[in-house]
Design brief:
The chain has 390 residues and is an alpha+beta fold. It has helices at 3-7, 13-23, 26-39, 44-52, 71-81, 86-105, 110-123, 247-269, 283-312, 321-346, 357-365, 374-386; strands at 127-130, 148-152, 155-165, 173-180, 186-192, 198-201, 215-225, 229-233. Strands 1, 2, 3, 4, 5, 6, 7 and 8 form an 8-stranded mixed sheet that branches. A hairpin with a 2-residue loop joins strand 2 (148-152) and strand 3 (155-165). It is globular and about 80 Å long. It starts with a helix and ends with a helix. This is Acyl-CoA dehydrogenase. Its cofactor is FAD.
Length: 390
């Protein structure tokens, strides 16, 4: 979008630098995006470029060599990168978001978090959680993992299967949730990729976000040291507010922004022989563009406002569950609507794979299935309205 809109969200020099760094990747990422999508191939070249520019250390504490950016700044980066390639941005978001969550919750022993942080900075490692399973679905619904961890002397033996393991081809560390046998507890285990018994099954053949390579993780008698257990969760976990998950709507808004920009450029250039001017002069075309901009304005202001509350008022975070869920629902649905409008504006040409609109359309719909889903948002808001004490 134009500089005037952007400046409403870039408020200081640090944010301008973050935006400029992220924006420097847009054109090269856009050039590769169609090929990665067509081949369902993880964007290794993109990720290596991000590593080289320090983009994988943004949320790591400064004392461990990172940038320690805020949630607001994180969303600004995600929204911008997604304008180049959404699958790359979402993949990076899982890594940086995971490190942000660990930084803010302090749920790991500090010595382990320090070690992983230093390794990530020094060796450009990538980390993500593997929590979703075929039977339980997303952990946001509170299902108990069927993956098991059994204590054996001074080690753990882990068996199970995880789905939607984004970044699978390049992960260095995997955080796996597992039910601890003979206990009513769920553990988080930090596993190195090269642990014996870890394999990835290439199952990711989807309509959208094809380049995230969110393949299945197979855990077959994976034996690790007892220190691999880094935290415990109670059954029904996943219900506490998690600001870092706003990287998801930020990414899908990025898709909508680039789709809108491309549609405006198309409207300015395309002139059918039935007109003596480009279609940008047609009132209905301008109305559609205005509708796109209105959707983006509402969604972006809402998202960044809630992020600012999260950053500036830590004491309110435990009460922001409804707002965080609402941001995800509002923003992803707005992004879907904007991309649909671009398809209508461009017309039949938007269906051609030689243009990016059909990819935007496929990618943006994936946001509806990232957590939390709309039904969980509506249920949370409804419950809060009827019984605000719970």
């Amino acid at each position: 979008m134009s500089g005037n809109e952007l400046n409403l969200f870039v408020k200081n020099e640090n944010q301008q630098n973050l935006y400029d760094n992220a924006a420097s990747f847009i054109e090269s990422f856009k050039q590769r995006a169609a090929d990665y999508d067509r081949k369902a191939m993880f964007p290794i070249e993109n990720m290596n470029e991000l590593k080289a520019k320090g983009m994988t250390t943004l949320t790591i504490p400064k004392k461990y060599g990172g940038n320690e950016i805020s949630l607001y700044d994180f969303l600004l980066v995600q929204e911008t990168l997604a304008q180049g390639d959404a699958a790359t941005a979402l993949s990076l978001g899982w890594h940086n978001g995971t490190m942000m969550q660990l930084r803010d919750t302090k749920k790991w022993p500090e010595s382990i978090f320090e070690q992983v942080s230093h390794e990530t900075v020094r060796n450009h490692l990538l980390i993500n959680s593997a929590a979703t399973e075929p039977a339980t679905g997303s952990p946001a619904r509170g299902g108990k993992p069927e993956t098991t961890a059994t204590k054996s002397s001074n080690s753990w033996v882990i068996n199970g299967k995880k789905t939607f393991t984004s970044l699978a081809p390049m992960l260095d560390y995997i955080i796996v949730t597992a039910t601890i046998t003979d206990q009513d507890q769920i553990g988080e285990f930090l596993l190195p990729r090269n642990a014996n018994g870890i394999t990835f099954e290439e199952t990711w053949d989807t309509m959208g976000m094809r380049a995230t390579r969110s393949d299945d993780l197979i855990l077959n008698e994976v034996t690790v040291d007892e220190s691999a257990l880094v935290s415990l969760k109670d059954p029904g976990h996943g219900t506490s507010p998690q600001g870092w998950l706003l990287h998801i709507p930020a990414c899908y808004l990025g898709i909508a922004i680039t789709a809108r920009n491309d549609a405006v450029s198309f409207a300015k250039e395309y002139q059918p022989n039935s007109l003596n001017h480009p279609i940008s002069e047609v009132p209905e075309v301008r109305r559609k563009i205005a509708e796109m901009d209105l959707e983006l304005m509402k969604a972006r202001h809402f998202m960044y406002h809630v992020a600012e509350i999260w950053d500036t008022s830590p004491e309110l975070r435990s009460k922001l569950g409804g707002e965080l869920a609402a941001v995800k629902t509002v923003c992803t649905n707005a992004a879907v609507k904007v991309v649909d409008l671009t398809m209508r504006l461009v017309g039949g040409q938007s269906l051609h794979r030689s243009k990016p609109f059909e990819r935007y359309y496929r990618d943006v719909r994936a946001g509806l299935h990232n957590p939390p889903s709309d039904d969980l948002t509506f249920m949370a808001l409804g419950n809060r309205a009827i019984d605000p004490k719970n």
